[in-house]
Design goal:
CATH class: Alpha Beta
Strand order of the largest sheet: 1-2-3-4-5-6-7-8
CATH architecture: Alpha-Beta Barrel
Number of helices: 12
Number of strands: 8
Helix content: 40-55%
Distance between the termini: 56 Å
Shape: globular
Structural class: alpha/beta
Radius of gyration: 19 Å
Strand content: 5-15%
CATH topology: TIM Barrel
Largest sheet: 8 strands, parallel, barrel
Order of helices and strands: EHHEHEHEHHEHEHEHEHHH
Mean pLDDT: 94
Low-confidence stretches: none
Number of domains: 1
């Protein structure tokens, strides 16, 4: 029997999804200037993959109507991929004109969710994305594929592992460089993680798989640990824990980047990301949103530092 926590990766890559996934469902409009500043702060933290915006119809997601302006005005740092969501060929053309070099396509493992989210069946979405990926790869654009509802669906309940594998295999075959497997409604537990990864790695190289957990029921970090033990080295998270999913009732709670970093750094796993700089980005955007972040690590560290300042002031 192997020792507990043996064989964990030495380094993990974090995909920061706050600027897109975290902000897209905010009820009040977030100014372009605030989005740009938020992204620039995240860029300075050492993150190498940041989901910035989406080239979707402004009528569908008004919060992302300024995608061109955001991409034109952010400070693009060397070594950072600025990922944009692209739903179809029209969105790809907009991304091209904005000099985007990394895109993402978005489907799911359950038909009911796909119909409500993008108004297509799974097979219809894969047909559309096959064209998008083919055109993108022809231009040398890096492509990520997302699979929502991989651990459970708000409309269908349990999702068979085979359904996740089928979609992942299709995305891999069409040329996606990386595939993110999402627990959209935050129902997953570690045993599911192990089962899903075990099946997926028979079809997709482990180094091309990412995990996207929600902390709706408090299991996100437990699922991260299980995924680490299976060899996963790429995780999605949102600074401050921003975001959720409008099509998944009760599914608020992306895994917070600060919580993920605290876990990984505490376990001596390298990320290249400065936790303090991420906290700075979270501090900025949550003040702009006029509400507190939900990240446990963020709030605990902020409270501890405030207490130390208070004590230092009383002793001066």
């Amino acid at each position: 029997m192997s020792e507990p926590l043996s064989g964990l990766p030495a380094r993990v890559t974090i995909c920061e999804v706050g600027p897109r996934d975290g902000l897209q469902n905010e009820a009040n409009a977030v100014s372009s200037a605030d989005k740009i500043r938020y992204i620039d702060l995240l860029s300075g933290s050492g993150l190498s993959l940041i989901e910035t915006t989406s080239f979707v119809s402004p009528k569908a997601i008004p919060q992302m109507a300024d995608a061109e302006e955001v991409m034109a005005r952010i400070e693009r740092r060397p070594g950072v991929r600025y990922l944009t969501l692209v739903p179809n060929l029209r969105g790809l053309e907009r991304a091209r004109l904005a000099n985007v070099d990394s895109i993402a396509v978005f489907t799911a493992a359950s038909n009911s969710f796909t119909q409500r989210n993008i108004r297509m069946s799974i097979d219809e979405s894969l047909a559309v994305f096959s064209e998008v990926v083919r055109e993108a790869k022809r231009d040398g654009i890096w492509v990520r594929g997302y699979i929502s509802t991989s651990f459970g669906c708000p409309y269908e309940g349990e999702v068979p592992v085979g359904a996740v594998v089928r979609v992942a295999d299709a995305l891999a075959q069409m040329g996606c460089d990386e595939i993110s497997v999402g627990d959209t409604v935050g129902v997953g537990v570690p045993s599911q993680v192990v089962e899903i990864v075990r099946e997926l790695r028979e079809h997709v190289p482990i180094e091309r798989l990412a995990m996207h957990f929600h902390d709706t029921r408090g299991t996100a970090l437990a699922n991260v640990l299980a995924a680490l033990e299976t060899g996963i080295t790429i995780f999605d998270s949102s600074s401050g824990g921003l975001g959720g999913c409008p099509y998944a009732p009760g599914a608020t709670g992306n895994l917070a980047t600060e919580d993920l970093l605290y876990l990984l750094h505490g376990m001596k796993i390298e990320t290249g990301v400065d936790l303090e700089r991420v906290r700075e980005a979270t501090r900025f955007i949550t003040r702009a949103l006029a509400r507190a972040p939900v990240s446990r690590a963020y709030n605990a560290i902020e409270a501890a530092e405030a207490r130390l300042r208070e004590l230092a002031g009383s002793q001066a």
